[in-house]
Design goal:
Domain DUF8059: 1-139
Radius of gyration: 18 Å
InterPro entries: DUF8059 (IPR058372)
Structural class: mainly alpha
Protein name: DUF8059 domain-containing protein
Helix content: over 70%
Shape: elongated
Strand content: under 5%
Number of helices: 4
Largest sheet: none
Distance between the termini: 38 Å
Order of helices and strands: HHHH
Organism: Halorubrum glutamatedens
Number of domains: 1
Keywords: Membrane, Transmembrane, Transmembrane helix
């Protein structure tokens, strides 16, 4: 499942970069970028970076089984749902979809609360924060 998080993160960054280039074309043509496009772009970028981080944090904190699946599915749904609803609702005039933003935001919050629980209840050395036998070289 962490492959899904990492893959979704990198795909999200690629989509975010493509949207950024589109925004550049709009600006270069002398027009302002619509605020809804900027908001979706920013949210997708941040959430995609966090998806990649989550791809490493989930196994590092020992999240397994159905909880691991729940964290992954909830996070990916929120990662794409939040910017998607901004683009669809505001950008394409499908404003009746806007209330689903609470669903996508809630999915992200639940995912983060599960990770919070694992981070504070797991072993102190979970996540690689403890001492190591590795000695860095003198460069």
């Amino acid at each position: 499942m962490t492959r899904a998080l990492k893959g979704s993160g990198f795909l999200g960054l690629a989509v975010m970069m493509a949207v950024g280039l589109h925004q550049f074309v709009i600006v270069a043509g002398g027009s302002p970028v619509p605020p809804w496009m900027i908001g979706g772009h920013a949210h997708l970028g941040v959430l995609s970076i966090l998806a990649i981080v989550m791809g490493f944090a989930v196994p590092a904190l020992g999240v397994t089984g159905n909880v691991r699946t729940a964290v992954t599915v909830l996070f990916i749904a929120g990662q794409w749902g939040i910017p998607g609803i901004v683009w669809l609702g505001e950008g394409f005039g499908l404003t009746f979809l806007m209330p689903t933003g609470f669903l996508w935001g809630g999915a992200l919050i639940v995912s983060m609360l599960i990770m919070f629980y694992y981070s504070v209840t797991g072993p102190a050395d979970a996540g690689g924060g403890g001492s190591s036998s590795f000695v860095p070289g003198d460069d």
